[in-house]
Write a structure and sequence with these properties.
Layout: H1 2-31, E1 49-51, H2 58-68, E2 73-76, H3 93-101, E3 105-108, E4 114-119, E5 125-129, E6 139-141, H4 143-161, E7 168-169, H5 178-186, E8 190-191
Parallel strand pairs: 1-2, 2-3, 7-8
Antiparallel strand pairs: 4-5, 5-6
């Protein structure tokens, strides 16, 4: 519960930062009209992204985004959730449909939340799925197999929402190599990493 509260507060701070600055700027503008001092403006873009995780605060995040009219990008993997199902199960269909209807963006987080281990022989990469039938096994993926892993999230999202994801993906744990990035590019998906200070664990 503490983690949930902190996450919601952190999310609210991120989303309300520019709004609060704009409110302060308007108040300052009213008191500074005589001196004609330039009013600071919030003119930088914050890209707010979320990965599926265990979905324990999913509805709270969606409610805050909707209430504040903020759009975000969600990176989806079929991860086990806090309620015992999986984030791309039919039970989550209304949730993803509503976020899609609100105009958020979506990218692949690999279907089985597959962690990069190291580059392998013959241009392949070793990966370790966290979920699915091969969870915990270290497997050598060639380009075609890795493309399928990225596209599975996209395909499943389209089944749930009748909408395709953007052609972007994020590696679980942020673990990549130049070879892995190139594989994603060859599949038509651009890798989107976190900002250096953007990985929030609570």
């Amino acid at each position: 519960m503490i983690l949930k509260s902190r996450f919601i507060q952190f999310t609210a701070v991120l989303m309300l930062g520019c709004i609060s600055l704009n409110g302060q700027a308007q108040a300052q503008a009213q008191t500074q009209t005589q001196t004609q001092t330039p009013t600071p403006q919030c003119n930088k873009t914050v890209y707010l992204t979320f990965d599926t995780g265990n979905m324990s605060v999913a509805q709270a995040v969606a409610d805050i985004l909707n209430r504040q009219h903020v759009k975000a990008t969600f990176f989806l993997a079929n991860e086990k959730t806090s309620r015992g199902d999986y984030s791309l199960d039919d039970s989550w269909k209304p949730y993803w449909q509503e976020l899609a209807r609100q105009g958020h963006h979506f990218g692949s987080h690999t279907y089985d939340h597959t962690y990069f281990v190291k580059d392998g022989p013959s241009g392949g990469v070793f990966e370790k799925p966290q979920f699915g039938p091969k969870a915990g096994m270290t497997i050598l993926y060639n380009e075609a197999a890795f493309c399928r892993e990225i596209r599975r999230s996209d395909d499943r999202f389209k089944e749930l929402t009748n909408q395709s994801m953007q052609k972007i993906w994020r590696a679980p744990g942020g673990k990549v190599s130049p070879r892995l990035i190139k594989m994603g590019n060859l599949c038509g998906y651009q890798h989107i990493a976190w900002a250096p200070a953007g990985f929030f664990l609570g």
